[in-house]
Amino acid sequence: MNIRRIRYARLQMRLLGRRKAFSFSVGVVRELAGWKGWQNPMVRLAVLVVALPVLWLTITTPLTEGQQLVFALLTFGAALFLRLLPGRYVTQALIVLSLVASTRYLYWRLTETISFDTWLSGLFGTGLFLAELYAWIVLVLGFFQTAWPLERKPAAMAPDSSTWPTVDVFIPTYNEPLKVVRTTVLAAMAIDWPRHKIKVFVLDDGRRDEFAAFAKEVGAGYLTRKDNKHAKAGNINAALKVTSGEYVAVFDCDHIPTRTFLQVAMGWFNRDEKLVMVQTPHHFFSPDPFEKNLGTFKKVPNEGELFYGLVQDGNDLWNATFFCGSCAVMKRSALDEIGGIAVETVTEDAHTALKMHRLGYSTAYLAVPQAAGFATESLGAHVGQRIRWARGMAQIFRTDNPFFGRGLKLAQRLCYANAMLHFFYGLPRLVFLTAPLAYLLFGSQVIQASAITIALFALPHLLHANVTNSRMQGEFRHSFWAEVYESVLAWYILRPVLVAFINPKYGKFNVTAKGGLNESEFFDWDISKPYLILMGFSLLGLVAGLGKLFWDFDADVDTIVLNLIWTVYNLIMLGAAIAVANEARQVRTSQRVSMKIKAALRSPDGRSHICTTTDYSEGGVGILLPVPLNLPVGEQVKLTLQRGTDEFEFDASVTMNRGTHLGLQFSPMNTQQSIDFVQCTFARADSWVVWGDRRKSDKPLTSMREVAWMGVRGLKVLGAVLLNEIKRRRVSPKAAASVPTAPGKARA
Question: Is 723 exposed, middle or buried (0-12, 13-18, 19+ CB in 10 A)?
Fold first, then answer.
């Protein structure tokens, strides 16, 4: 018994000693990170001069396998320790560790593994190295771009509103239905700005009579032109010629601005004479195809949140904020100086900002959502939109390369270059998805080293990059999800990017459709063909590898196992891509927005009941009551909503009664009531500010488990779809012909 107590006491002493050592280490790191001397440029320069030779030696010094293992464990242990500590300087230390591990891996690949026995191994091996080189360049540029986000806050306007400038609000539209454009126009009409200093214009490239009538009814301007040359850019440029506001605010026709948009965005123009553009985030209150089809809406950050949550904030530090085509304000004089919105490429927004920066002007980014709109409804539309972005960025890289020409600082060139190079990921991603098949199917050794050595160099590179990116991006991008997005889009952006790089003038502008419906769930065979082909080859490689592992006694087991693990990882990503192609139903014509707003319900007996909204749309609202009300479906009621101290009452009927939860449908509204409703809901100043507050930050292991489950889910979906297709084809030709399956689509 005494021996046990002595052992227990020794264990407690050891744990106490370790805790003290850990606390001491944390204290030292915090003191170093918080040292004010880091703000001195000379101190930072001195550290850089000393550190660079040390880092180079660390990267290039050859080590035995045992030494490399110790090095990897020590550096990764340091990264895990630093990850627990707060502070931006700690983040910089993590970046340094990641760059050392990744650059050491690339240096090792270049100096020790590029030697091939056959032309096939040389082809596959060189392709893999170039893909890794591309990934390393994007990693380095990404760290540079986002290492220190500016986090600019809104600046107050002058107290005297008579000194505020005049603003023209442009809402370009082409083929979108009026129900999509209507709410945006009504919200823009209600923006808090002196009435005689703001004008709202509908720029209708569809030249539709119903739009002209609607604009006249609500008091908005209506502008058209004879042709649709240069698409959206040409539409805005035509409007610039016949309007006169000192500033121009641009909204896509489905981006609904809050009433505080201009007061939030305009303040910085008074502080910086060179400032010509302020961009705010593109926020979406509807799920994109990934979120809808995978069920991750409001749980996992979507594809665009990294850009609007972190990248643009990082750009702002270097005066490299891009114009994103909507939710932005620009100074008219600067637009006139560069000849209006850029028309040379299909990403006219980023190209316009590049032209402004070349003239020495400043741009700014405010990470405060002040408008919200519809995300793309289908995967096909989403892919089409990304194809246009990718093609446009390749066009700019080819015709107005940021590395050349006058006017840009080095940091601006790097930020623009990273934005453009990002869209060249198609070929590298396809290389990573097929690289292990070179060995499993053809016996080609793409990396001339043992599997153990490869793991000792590659794993630190991958793990450090993951930990560091999780630290920097965790609020806006969860680990492993980037690979899912890229796997879905890689095949589709590959050709447009290569063609645009070779022939920048090839192709035309395509409009992203909004407001569509999916009557039923279906599997999109057309969009999923590349994933299915890649999955087929990966499964073939998996079978071949397992065959070699169990029946080829002369095979290199370690190499086979390494490539099998890589193939399984790729199958998970391809499975998730297939799951995205299984389109969920979308039958609502008006997207519901979840939001709690205080309200009052007046029942037919004249009594008022305090309640809270649960969600709302253009046509109705859900409310939560403290006690159940006996109101039958179809009962006429009145709902009162507030905007500040003002109250607005709307006629409605009960469509659903579940005790304390009621669903209401609004009666037809006149123009003023529609404006009042939009002001109380979509255009509220606080509508989108706390949208993502409840979402959890990234946990790499949790994210890995989620993505793995999505991969398995994709395989199940594929199995179910194939089974249904087999059953359908067994039906008699007459009955099969009656099955309502759209071309290229199968019911899941």
Answer: exposed
pTM: 0.87
Q: Is 552 a catalytic residue?
A: no
At 179, which CATH number? 3.90.550.10
Checking DSSP bridges between strand 522-524 and strand 582-583, what pairing results, if any? antiparallel
Structural tokens at position 736: 């099969």
205 is catalytic: yes
Active-site pick, 254, 288, 349, 698? 349
For the chain, what is the domain count?
2
Average pLDDT over the chain reads 87
Domain that holds residue 331: 161-378+399-409
Question: What Cα–Cα distance (Å) separates residue 581 from each residue in 239, 426, 538?
Answer: 39, 18, 19
Catalytic residue among 204, 205, 254, 524: 205
Q: Report which residue type is found at 64.
A: T
In one-letter notation, the amino acid at residue 712 is: V
Work out the burial of residue 54: count CB atoms within 10 Å of its CB; fewer than 13 is exposed, 13-18 middle, 19 or more buried: exposed
Q: Taking CA 577 as the corner, what is the angle to CA 571 and CA 578, rounded to the nearest 5 degrees?
A: 90
**pLDDT by residue (tens digit) across 37-68?**
656 677 667 777 777 888 899 999 999 999 99
Q: pLDDT by residue (tens digit) across 224-236?
A: 999 999 999 999 9
**Comparing C-alpha atoms, which of 76, 143, 69, 103 is closest to residue 463?**
76
Q: Is the pLDDT of residue 588 over 60?
A: no
Domain CATH number, residue 631: 2.40.10.220
